[in-house]
Amino acid sequence: MTIHTAYSALKANFATGKYLGYSRNAVNALLAETLPSFILRRGLHNARGIVLKESLVKAASSVLMNGKETWDTGGPRPQKLAKCQSAVLDEWLGPSGLIHKNSEKTIGDDESKCLEEMQEEIMEKKATPVAIMWRVWEDLPGPQAEAAVPQMIDEDPDTLFKFSVMSYNILAQDLLVANPDLYLHCSDKVLVWSARLKGIIQEIQAWRPDILCLQEAQEDHFKKQLQPVLSDMGYSCVYKRRTGSKTDGCAVCYQNKRFSQLSVSLLELRKERCELLDRDNVAIVLLLQPITSQCHDERGTPICVATTHLLFNPRRGDIKLAQLVLVLAEVDKVVKRCKAMGRDCEVVLCGDFNSLPNMPLYQFISTGQLHYHGLPAWMISGQEDLSHQTHPRRVLAPLLPSSLGINDNCQYVTTSMAKPPPPGELKYNHDYMLNLRYSQAACVRPKDLEHIPGVTDNAPDQHEKQPCALMFRNTICHCLNLNSAYSHIITGTDRPEVTTVHSSAGATVDYIFYTARSEHSRSQTDKGAHGGLELIGRLSLLSEADLWSLRGLPNEIFTSDHLSLLVKFQLRISPL
């Protein structure tokens, strides 16, 4: 087998997506760009395979480490990187690859010169990691959903509204400057705002999401530099700066040809006379109406889009939880307002939650309930393991004071419910009694209860998701039925995804949650069955090892210390 023949076979396998991970990322730039033309041009495609693995490792290292730049932070990362590269190249160029077992020989002067020329050619072409490390779009056709829902006869394709959502923490420059210790691994040129802005704009222009949610958008940079570009791209933008002296905030931008704005709530998560809510974080809750031929007025299914950036402090999960409750209460209010008008409302909740997957805060969002009383505050987000502490700060009930008017179901309390009963009237009013319908005690039928048809034979549906009863004061709940759009494990591997890398740490802290279609909705065959969003695609994330092979974040390709999240949904529009 000649090198050229073997390369052709490898290229075909790359095209099928058969090879993933380091094999795909690290070697592709070397083989797909430089080697073919170089080998063919110099007639080196002979059966002996003259190129030694060590030389290829050296050349690949030059590409991956940006040529002249060297690791200046010390530690094990250069050795770790070299080990990964060696393992990859051994896999591709070893006994079963391009170099046969007995084909290695001592390189002569001419061949050594060829290798040097090849490495120079790589550097002349300025082979950047964009050719090495890329993110793959994953189509998620939902085979289970397709199997469960037969094709509807004469179904109008316009009843399916597809739209994409990007959530992106773009790293405020003021925060970068204020925290230099987080970016010691970066070269100075990748930290310059002008270079980072260019990369951010290029990424948004490449994907052109229908809805764009930004966190850490510095106010002056956003309004003077980003927003004008986004406006030219057809976006309408809503911005909310953090309170106090902070210079960054959140933004939600949407394509005004695809959505119209129904309402907006700009939330400040700092509340007076509340100990837990004393930080300057903010959130935006936006109600958008899809624009289609089927819902050109305001009678179709709207979408509530919410974005936030919760507190970073790993030790104060109690504050993060309290901030999240405020955001969920506002979302719940918007959804209820739509339902009061007889309309469904789907929810997309995204942002930087500064919490790891499957930790209590994440579980609260995805399961709808959390027994929080007594939990160590650090455990809520799980960013740091402080289990060695003898007396850690704990989260205590009640989480929020009643003066905020938000109950344990993450719902605003109505004025009528908040008022004390007038003297002489019943304490247990109708609203209070309704909350007891789904308590465990109410589900037990007394043995001596007289059977009265239509009265005592009714029972609540225990399979229906219900708010927790008011008597259970150590638990918080919500009824939004949210799922994560990402699985947090790289497809086809057991490696965890990460959304951010800085200093010596990488983790997943950014999420897109959405109201998923229920199994009940999927099983309906009539045209009137609607409800929930269908996730039909997403942009894959990378592992921490992948990102460290690019010298972490930010770098020349990914110019924030967070990766963007991008997903695509499908919504069945209710007929008029």
Architecture blueprint of SSEs:
Blueprint: H1 3-15, H2 21-42, H3 53-64, H4 77-93, H5 109-124, E1 137-139, H6 143-148, E2 160-169, H7 173-178, H8 193-207, E3 211-218, H9 219-232, E4 235-241, E5 248-255, E6 259-268, E7 282-290, E8 303-309, H10 317-340, E9 346-352, H11 360-367, E10 369-371, H12 377-381, H13 415-418, H14 430-435, E11 475-477, E12 482-484, E13 500-502, E14 505-507, E15 510-515, H15 519-522, E16 533-539, H16 544-548, E17 565-572
Parallel strand pairs: 2-3, 8-9
Antiparallel strand pairs: 1-16, 2-17, 3-5, 4-5, 6-7, 7-8, 9-15, 10-11, 12-15, 13-14, 16-17
Helix pairs in contact: 1-2, 2-3, 2-4, 2-5, 3-4, 3-5
Explained architecture:
There is one protein chain. With 576 residues, the chain is α+β, with helices and mostly antiparallel strands. The chain has 16 helices and 17 strands. It has helices at 3-15, 21-42, 53-64, 77-93, 109-124, 143-148, 173-178, 193-207, 219-232, 317-340, 360-367, 377-381, 415-418, 430-435, 519-522, 544-548, and strands at residues 137-139, 160-169, 211-218, 235-241, 248-255, 259-268, 282-290, 303-309, 346-352, 369-371, 475-477, 482-484, 500-502, 505-507, 510-515, 533-539, 565-572. The protein has a seven-stranded mixed sheet with strand order 1-16-17-2-3-5-4. Strands 6-7-8-9-15-12 form a six-stranded mixed sheet, with helices on one face. Strand 4 and strand 5 (248-255) form a beta hairpin. The N and C termini lie far apart (65 Å). Residues 13-108, 121-132, 143-155 and 525-529 have low confidence and may be disordered.
